[in-house]
Amino acid sequence: MEARYYVKEGDQIHCELCPHRCVIAEGKVGICGVRRHIQGKLVSENYGKITALQVDPIEKKPLAYFHPGSQVFSIGSFGCNLTCPYCQNHSIAHGKPASTDYSPDEMVEAVLRRELDFLAFTYNEPLVGFEYVLDTAKLAKAAGITTVMVTNGYVESEPLTDLLPYIDAWNIDLKGFYPQTYQKLGGRVEPVLRTIERVAKVAHLEITSLLVPGINDDREELKDMFEWIGALDPSIPLHLTRYFPAWRYHEPPTSVEWMREIAHEARQVLERVNLGNVWEVK
Ligand code: SF4
Questions:
Q1: How many angstroms does the Cα of residue 63 sit away from the middle of ligand 1?
Q2: What distance in angstroms lies between residue 94's CA and the mean position of ligand 1's atoms?
Q3: Residue 281 pLDDT level (bands cut at 50, 70, 90)
Q4: Which of 53, 117, 145, 150 could cysteine-pair with 140, CB 3.0–4.6 Å?
């Protein structure tokens, strides 16, 4: 499937889907690993390639204030445009696992066949497979299905503008607030803040911050982040979730006691703060 949002300059392709703006030579892929330059065209290699598909409670996205109690048909592909060393979904974000092909039509039919009303794009970074998400979300909306996006928010303005009308609820990761934190994750914070600001104006939005020891545990940084969200809208729900060692990062899991202290601080400026992934702690 030919990708959108690129220009050709000489022998190179410039991808304009996300703020990396990769310059891609013939035969190569961009940082996300799924958009390849083939004979002068940019091709979306994960279009319709589904690696994960299951029915989840909406609270697991996490969306705690959007149709609570609903079941969501949740799908993922492969690829991601950030490189968080602790990635909790690394096998599909940074690997290329077995996949099953679903056209957008087939996907919408699969949702309707199960008599479900919700479809979530989740698990890997859905926006690196932008064309499939857009095509499927359009069909889903036309069929009366409510759409959910779980994303790192690392996307350029033009594609975001094109997608906004077709997504009803968003959960966006805010992985830190200072430039040096996002540097450790292979990106920049400003584009994520821009995405959050735009989504907050037009759709249901909840934010997730995975609290990772040694990555984003600076209290001043977290305080500044909470204040920024509060200034945008203090009613935006914030999920502070617990990290567990994964992929290339081996620090012990986040202290639950410390998470409770941080949640207390967040509640000074935000009205809806939840802790996540703490269920197994007695
Ligand atoms: S979407 Fe992929 S190829 Fe395009 S700029 Fe981002 S990382 Fe690079």
A1: 27
A2: 14
A3: very low
A4: 145
